[in-house]
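Hey,
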Amino acid sequence: MSTHVICPVQVSGFALDGVEGLLNTIISVQEELNPELENTGMVINNLKRGFEEDMITRDELRKAVPDLVYKSEIGVRGQLDVANLNGVPVWSIKDIGTRGWQRDPCSYRRTHGKGGLTWH
């Protein structure tokens, strides 16, 4: 049985509308099925840093639930999709900063303090 959950959240309008429902679902699972389940927080996913609306929405989300949003963010990951479709490692695609992915793309840990994802 799962012990922890991290919620990836996009800051687009439609995706953000589902955050409350997602959090309510986690609470229901905790109450009815798995009282040990810990919601470790939300990580902002697919963030378009050059898109002003995304940045405004991100800031509003951080203000609304500051203790639930990781400091680290995941930007647009087009290269991951390209790598997956072509069956190649993401770091083999040029012009992207992927040094952290070379180590272990699935391994992360939560840092102390206000929270953030650290690749190791």
